[in-house]
Amino acid sequence: MNQNTVRAAAVATFSVFAINGFVFASWAARIPAVTRILDLTAGEMGLLLLTIAAGSVIALPLAGTVVARIGTAHTIRTGGFTAAFGGLIISLALSQHNVPLTAVGLFFFGIGIGLWDVAQNIEGADVERHLGRTVMPQFHAGFSGGALIGALVGAGLSALDVSMSAHLLVIVLGVSVAMVFVPKLFLPETATSGSRSSAADKAGKGRSAWTEKRTLMVGLVVLGAALTEGSANDWIAKATVDGLGSTEAGGAIMFAVFVASMTLFRFFGGSFVDKFGRVPVLYGSLGSALLGLVVFVVAPNLLLAAVGAVLWGAGSAMGFPMGMSAAADDPARAAARVSVVSTIGYVAFLAGPPLLGFLGDHFTIRWALLAIAVAIIASILTAPAAKPLPKSEYENAAN
């Protein structure tokens, strides 16, 4: 295939990852404003946010079949427009201070984000194969970078007292325009249409990807990585404030250190994979996450805790993207397997942090974070499952 076409597809894929991160973080940064507008307690807001998780958990297992039927570009458009529709409902609900209607909007938002996420990972794996080098971590760096920008924009608009409804309307318009034009640069469907048709056939006639040992083992690798990342996103700032006596600003800076480290290593991690191999890099990455987590928890001061946050962020960088690459090794089964691995990862990403919060009520959140170590060790033990799958084994991979 023409390399200019592949490079254009890589830019488009990076863009949809970044937009996805921007949209999600723009919403997350305004959660305090939403809580105030709807006059909810923290616990009530937590229950309301579960509607996003419900939508995503429903969409993720189905996304592989959708991609196999209509392709990645149309699936991402479907996800993007569904998320935008959810945002429109949320905007209307907030203007009316209507909690049930907000829940409906968040449910559609979660469905859209779930479809979008699986499809962008499948497209990323296709682009990676055509480029002949590891680029999936860079795509996930785009998500992290977009999330960081989205959080900053959300914080800035909040400081300027811009209404949440107006903020969401602008995002809805931006996402809708992006969904029309950006996926046009994806790889032509003819490049992978055969494999997607095969995936559709196997989805209907063959074994489910949920019964494949290798796919589930790769899912365990991603589970530990997703829990590590998600828990840091939710709790590292609070653990810094409560455990080290820092100010809220100091907690925010510690979170920024974690995100910056993770984003940086995602940008440059692909070259390490190409040089040393997927499994050795996973060992090093997960080992860094484990060491960084322990250092952060036991650190007696902010400086040493920041060192732990850097190691923790670096270690969180590679597990999720490498899991996506491993799930997509066989193009004919990529859609189904990425859907399974994504579902496992996102369940951990969404459900893990609240469980840590429960432990934090008994042991303080800083010490509760050590529970993540169990998941990281499980990921280390299952890392060999992510070894690249030789073409000769494609037909036997499900056995």
Number of helices: 15
What's the number of structural domains?
Answer: 2
Structural class: mainly alpha
| Name given to the CATH architecture of the largest domain | Up-down Bundle
Mean pLDDT: 85
Largest sheet: none
Unreliable runs = 191-206
Question: Helicity level, as a percent range?
Answer: over 70%
Provide the gyration radius in Å.
20 Å
Q: Could you give me the name of the CATH homologous superfamily of the largest domain?
A: MFS general substrate transporter like domains
Q: Strand content of the residues, in percent?
A: under 5%
Q: CATH class of the largest domain, anyone?
A: Mainly Alpha
Gross morphology: globular
Q: Order of helices and strands, N to C?
A: HHHHHHHHHHHHHHH
**Might you state the CATH topology name of the largest domain?**
Growth Hormone, Chain: A
Distance between the termini: 32 Å
Oligomer: single chain
Strands, count: 0
Main location: membrane
Organism: Arthrobacter stackebrandtii
Protein name: MFS family permease
Keywords: Membrane, Transmembrane, Transmembrane helix
